[in-house]
Amino acid sequence: QLVELGGKSVQAGGSLTLSCAASGRSFSPYAMGWFRQAPGKEQERVAAIRWDGEATWYPDSLKDRFTISKDKPEQTLYLQMSGLTPEDTATYYCATIDYRLTGPYAAWGHGTQVTVSS
């Protein structure tokens, strides 16, 4: 089970850190990632990290503002976001990935809402 936390309303230019707690024994995915979904827009990948921490992935449009990290012993994933704009408004989901950092998502949580106002 994946549970995202940390979403809230923020002002443009602000920062926010999301977390995702994974439950279950022997949790060891190949990788984890974050994606977001805004109303009327396609799902968008925002970051991914190999669970051994040796590789990360970001789309070019977000790599300067978003940082993904993990606490492996705590089975927790994080997404640090800065320089937020109204275009970042979306529901953010964390997900497990079975292969390749841009591979299909295997499981995801219920999401956490981020709203950025101008």
Question: Quick one: biggest sheet?
Answer: 7 strands, mixed
Q: Low-confidence parts, pLDDT < 50 over ≥5 residues?
A: none
Helix fraction, binned, reads: under 10%
Order of helices and strands: EEEEEEEEEEE
Instruction: Please work out how many helical segments DSSP would assign.
Output: 0
Question: Would you tell me the overall average pLDDT?
Answer: 95
> Could you say which structural class the secondary elements and strand pairing correspond to?
mainly beta
How big a fraction of the residues is strand?
Answer: over 45%
Cα(first) to Cα(last) distance is 34 Å
Count of β-strands? 11
CA-based shape? globular
Gyration radius, rounded: 13 Å
Tell me what you see in this structure:
This protein is 0% helix and 51% strand. It has no helices and 11 strands.
